[in-house]
Amino acid sequence: MANTGSAPSEFPDAKADGLKLLHRICTRRSTPPRHLAAPGPSEDEIRMIVQAACRAPDHMGLKPFRFIVIPPDRRDALADAFEAAERELDPDIAGEKLERAREKASHAPMLLAVISRVQENMEVPEIEQRASAGAALGYVVLAADLLGYGAMAVSGRKVATKAMHRAFRLANNEGLLCFVGIGMPAKVKGPPPEPDPELLRTWQPDAGEAG
Ligand SMILES: Cc1cc2nc3c(=O)[nH]c(=O)nc-3n(C[C@H](O)[C@H](O)[C@H](O)COP(=O)(O)O)c2cc1C
């Protein structure tokens, strides 16, 4: 928080703290759900994670996202839903392939389903609402990391199936964006690659795209 007046700032080290956070953000890695061990976040921590997600940029405050916690004791039901989704994608699926699909439901002590929901709105087109849900997902992963957990967004073709839509009782304007696995990382990746400098350019109005 910036120190705007003569009164001493409530957070004198805000910038130093911010730089530490920024470093955490820039060096964060995802941990695949199969490498996430117990414990997962507590109920209070889940609330904090969702509170952070709700600070995602959100034009007109539409909240074009919501979250569904899948606790450890509902994993058999999730495995059934995964199986139904895979059967919808491939009616002939069987054996090991099916077992692997079911097994994914047991990974990570905590799974959070991220739902994107698009509302009819003259001011806020669909692309903005979907972007907001994506940003909220990013904040979930960052908040989990800042609380000391590993996390990763995972999806697969199954998330777009009718079976998953039914299993999560989604409304017509909703879609299952992904699951976020959260837990203690049993395996940690190395540092992330440096971002491609080409990803940032300065606008050159007369030079077009070539810059
Ligand atoms: C909506 C969404 C779904 C994703 N689904 C998968 C997935 O199913 N499998 C996968 O390997 N990565 C998936 N990813 C990417 C990972 O979450 C992660 O960003 C990527 O592996 C890079 O890892 P890093 O954060 O360590 O650099 C997904 C990302 C998003 C935003």
Automatic annotation (TrEMBL):
Similarity comment: Belongs to the nitroreductase family.
Enzyme class of the recorded protein, top EC level: oxidoreductase
Alphabetically ordered keywords of this record: Flavoprotein, FMN, NAD, NADP, Oxidoreductase
EC number: 1.-.-.-
InterPro entries recorded: NAD(P)H_nitroreductase, Nitroreductase, Nitroreductase-like, YdjA-like
Highest taxon of source: Bacteria
Annotated Nitroreductase domain residues: 27-183
Region (Disordered): 188-211
Record's protein name: Putative NAD(P)H nitroreductase
Cofactors named for this entry: FMN
Pfam hit, one: Nitroreductase
Source species taxonomy: Bacteria, Pseudomonadati, Pseudomonadota, Alphaproteobacteria, Hyphomicrobiales
